[in-house]
Amino acid sequence: MHPPPLALTPALPSELLTYVLAHQVYPTTLIICQSRNTFLATLLSTIPQPIHQISRQTAHAINPHRHPEPQDDDSLPPESQRHPLLIPTLHQITASRQIKLVFIPTVSHLRAYLSVFPSQVDEEGDGRPPELKVDKLGKNAALLIVYGLVDLHRDTSEWSAQGVGNSVAGLVEAGCKGERRIVVIEERKKEGDAGVDVAHGAEESDQPTRKPGWKVWGQRVPMLNGSVRRPGFESEDSAWSGRTIEVGRIFARWFKFGKGDWDIEE
Fold first, then answer.
1. How far apart, in Å, are the Cα atoms of 88 and each of 35, 91, 94?
2. What pLDDT digit, counting tens, does each position of 3-52 carry?
3. Which of 10, 134, 158, 162 is least surrounded, with the fewest CB atoms within 10 Å of its CB?
């Protein structure tokens, strides 16, 4: 019996990759619900890079045909001052070869990919690392990680309990078929970026204020696809007509909620 799916607190792209490297076991699949360029741009903005490296990248962008200058090892910053993802350790090199990375730009692409997700038997073959024998349930389990599932539905016709629920049900089915532990993580906005608020579908209420890490699961969506917004009366915010439900209640049918490593360490 596999452990239940897990929904973690939002994470930056760098925190996501650090989590995957720390917990991955072959076979692990990482689904990024963004375009490749968008994800890489956000990732680079969250990883502090040495000044000399940024200068070389800028020069290469201006003149890509220019012969690169030889690097002086003495000018490189010590590893203690570099982000862990920028240090090519043997663990990172080995783990990166065992992780399948998929970029999903739309809800339709996500559902199509999940519908043909391979079973555990289909993935067995030559080159597979030896299967780990573990005693504790859920420890070192093969993972199916989805990053940005909720945000992928935003501002689409699938932004509803019906639409999100259909995608989550397909994800759970794919995880069971592939014998994976499912982990869903949303993108955490950097300080200064617009967070989750009423304009993104959450409604004001008398309930206690949620901690920032849990706000994503408190967003409210209409029950059915095709619901329309009604304009606000005293602001530019708008609310959904008819009944709404929290996103977290949709996930609660299958998922358990927990804190990510990035929140536990704080």
1. 25, 8, 10
2. 789 999 999 999 999 899 888 888 899 999 999 999 999 998 888 766 44
3. 134
Give CA–CA dist 21/118, Å, rounded.
22
Q: How far apart are alpha carbons 264 and 188 in whole angstroms?
A: 15
Spacing of C-alpha 221 from chain mean position: 20
Distinct helix (H) and strand (E) counts, the chain = 11, 10
Domains and CATH numbers, the chain: 6-48+81-195+247-264 (3.40.50)
pTM above threshold 0.90: no
Mean pLDDT score of the chain? 75
Question: Is residue 18 within 8 Å of 89, Cβ to Cβ?
Answer: no
Tens of pLDDT, residue by residue over 164-198, are 999 999 999 999 999 999 999 999 876 655 444 43
